Amino acid sequence: MLKITDLVVSYGAIEALHGISLEVGEGEIVAIIGSNGAGKSTLLNTISGLLRPKSGTIINNDIPLHKTDPNKIVGLGISQVPEGRRIFSNLTVRENLEMGAILPENWKTFDKNLERVHKLFPRLQERDAQTGGTLSGGEQQMLAIGRALMGNPKLLLLDEPSLGLAPVLVTDVYRVIMQIQSSGIPILLVEQNAYQALKVANRAYVLETGNIVMGDTASRLLANDQVKKAYLGG
Length: 234
Known about the structure:
- The chain is an alpha/beta fold.
- It is built from 10 helices and 10 strands.
- The chain has 2 domains: 1-77 and 154-167 and 177-234, Rossmann fold (3-Layer(aba) Sandwich); 86-152, no CATH class.
- The longest helix has 16 residues, at 167-182.
């Protein structure tokens, strides 16, 4: 479905991704694990069209995303949940969700998508008229994911969904991630919380300073001594 080949991304003279290649297949959760500064967010922002690669290709269902404008990428059904949530703090929960359905074609299924979001996150329905900035960190993450789902995604990009959350909320968020996958939506998941990511992923890649140094099934990486030492606390 998504195939990235020899992707190089630079910030001016500084190269952030050094020719990486990876794939996400139908219905998969694929995790990208690595420390802060490894290039994980750069990868997602390049897939979304917010950054342009220096070289390499990003192909999604035969469409070259590396040559496609960001607004058209959204129209293709690729939704990103950014690091730090980035909800609209002065808008209500309902208005934030409406922003996720901003494309005209999404309004045709608005009620159905809203029902799905409320089923996944009942607290969002309870706080429908509350402004986003008054929500807790966990509720804001729920809102960010819900907003992405309102766009009828065919591929969901999740950037550090557990960042800053209490362990019980991390469990809740990852339960929902697995439910989203079970509905058939493939997910590319970027995480510093390697253990949590590898528990739910089908496959995973290890990204270090802009290079993919390892790629395997998630279960094998969980058992890998190098991964344990570097990312799983021994």
